[in-house]
Specification:
Largest sheet: 5 strands, antiparallel
Order of helices and strands: EEEEEEE
Helix content: under 10%
Radius of gyration: 12 Å
Shape: elongated
Number of strands: 7
Strand content: over 45%
């Protein structure tokens, strides 16, 4: 879930590994309020990853960690 204070903005979801390498990206549209997005992470190995959202005018969020387990 992502809360947006901008209505209708194209954003890129970037998933990186612990070394800062991009492992997957997804482009989506964000609307004012709460946005729910699905990411396909089944093919990723078990590890810690970081999700960052980049909007049209810069970084929308700070990197948020998540741990992929079986």
């Amino acid at each position: 879930r992502v809360n947006s204070n901008v209505d209708h903005e194209t954003a890129k979801i970037i998933v990186t590994d612990n070394l800062g390498r991009t492992v997957t990206t997804k482009t989506t549209e964000l609307f004012f309020g709460t946005n729910v997005m699905d990411l396909e992470v089944n093919a990723l190995p078990q590890a810690t990853y970081y999700i960052t959202i980049q909007g049209e005018n810069g970084w929308f969020t700070q990197p948020v960690p998540f741990v992929k387990v079986k």
